[in-house]
Design a protein that fits this description.
Elements: H1 4-26, E1 27-28, E2 32-33, H2 35-51, H3 63-74, H4 83-91, H5 94-102, H6 107-121, H7 123-133
Antiparallel strand pairs: 1-2
Helix pairs in contact: 1-2, 1-3, 2-3, 2-4, 4-6
């Protein structure tokens, strides 16, 4: 297994271009970052990594370390204590819904982000809801 620093260096090598694109596409007037747009990119990146880690150069066992790496990188633009989780929370607000609409995020992507957000924000609540539908869980 790679050391933490080797793993972080590998993440940086793999994801530096993606993170730069997120920054570029969230930049307004050359210096201002639209944090709402950045949050959409951030949650989308995390959601895709979780859904298909192998397609994104990750192994399932690296997701926690990648989450930490991505959180540190995102704190440059999203100053919340947990930029990824708080970005999912933001998307559930009225302002988040407006940002998704303004960004013309397709419904299937919105639904996917909402589902993963629910899993991340309230896993016990989701499990309780599902247990009514599926007592075998």
């Amino acid at each position: 297994m790679a050391t933490d620093s080797q793993q972080q260096a590998r993440f940086a090598e793999l994801y530096a271009p993606v993170l730069e694109d997120m920054k570029t596409h969230s930049t307004v007037a050359e210096t201002f970052i639209d944090t709402e747009r950045y949050r959409i990119y951030l949650t989308s990146l995390w959601a895709n990594a979780v859904a298909r880690p192998g397609a994104f150069g990750l192994q399932e066992g690296e997701l926690e370390a990648f989450y930490d790496y991505l959180s540190v990188q995102a704190q440059t633009y999203v100053t919340d204590a947990d930029p990824i989780l708080d970005s999912f929370r933001f998307l559930r607000t009225e302002a988040g819904e407006r940002a998704l609409a303004r960004g013309r995020v397709p419904k299937h992507v919105r639904d996917f982000l909402a589902h993963l957000g629910t899993l991340m924000i309230d896993p016990d609540g989701l499990k309780a809801q599902l247990s009514v539908l599926r007592p075998d869980l």
